Amino acid sequence: MKLLHIDSSILGDNSTSRTLSAAMVKRWQDATPGLEVSYRDLAEARLPHLTGGSLAGADAQEAELAAAMMDEFLAADVVVVGVPMYNFNIPSQLKAWIDRISVAGKTFKYTEAGPVGLAGGKTVFVAGAYGGFHSGDAPTNFIEPYLRYVFGFWGITDVEFITAEGLAVSPEQREASIKSARERIEGSCEALAA
C-alpha cells in the first residue's frame, strides 16, 4: 500500500495543518505494516505556477517534475493533504500542484456525457487549519467544497476533512480545537486497525 503525504503550509514547525497531517500519516503507518510513504512539501520545494510554457512542456526540468508528481499521485492508494486556510482558500502552492495533477487522459477524460474521473479508488484525508470558524457549510469556507469537487472530478469520492478551526480566537480555543482534531484522526482511522 502506498500513501502520498502533501503539506502546503508556509509556517514550517509552527503549522497546525502540518502537525495534523503528520498525525494522520503516523496513524496509517501504525496500522499498515509495510506502508510506503512519499512526502512532498509544496512550501519548501515550490512549484512554478502554471504558464503557457508549462502546458507546452517548454521547460524540460519542469515537465520532468510534473511527470514525477503525477506518477506519485497515481501510484498512491491514500493521499493525506495538510491545508491551511489563507484568505478563505487554499495556499497558492497547493493550487500549483492541483494544476499539475489535473491532466486530461491521466486523472480525468472528457466524454459526450461530460467529464469522467480516472483516478478513483483512492482515499483522501485533508488536515485543515483555520484561524476563524469556517468549516462545514460556512459561507466563508471555499476550501472544502473546492477540494471535494477537484477530487471528485478526478474520480475520488472517499474524502474526509478533519479540521482544527478558531485557532486565532484564543489560546484555549486553539488547544481545544487541536485536541478535538487529534481525537477525530484517531477515530476516523480506527477502521485501519481492524
Automatic annotation (TrEMBL):
Binding site for FMN: 9, 15-17, 85-88
Cofactor note: Binds 1 FMN per subunit.
Catalytic function, reaction form: 2 a quinone + NADH + H(+) = 2 a 1,4-benzosemiquinone + NAD(+); N,N-dimethyl-1,4-phenylenediamine + anthranilate + 2 NAD(+) = 2-(4-dimethylaminophenyl)diazenylbenzoate + 2 NADH + 2 H(+)
Keywords carried by this UniProt record: Flavoprotein, FMN, NAD, Oxidoreductase
InterPro entries, per the entry: Flavodoxin_fold, Flavoprotein-like_sf, FMN-dep_NADH:Q_OxRdtase_AzoR1, NADH:quinone_OxRdtase_FMN_depd
Enzyme Commission numbers on file: 1.6.5.-, 1.7.1.17
Start and end residues of each Flavodoxin-like fold domain: 1-186
Keyword Flavoprotein: yes
Cofactor: FMN
Assembly mode: Homodimer.
Physiological role: Also exhibits azoreductase activity. Catalyzes the reductive cleavage of the azo bond in aromatic azo compounds to the corresponding amines.
HAMAP family the record matches: Azoreductase_type1
Classification via PANTHER family: FMN-DEPENDENT NADH-AZOREDUCTASE 1, FMN-DEPENDENT NADH:QUINONE OXIDOREDUCTASE
Family as reported in the entry's similarity comment: Belongs to the azoreductase type 1 family.
Name of the protein this chain belongs to: FMN dependent NADH:quinone oxidoreductase
Organism: Lysobacter zhanggongensis
Gene that this polypeptide is encoded by: azoR
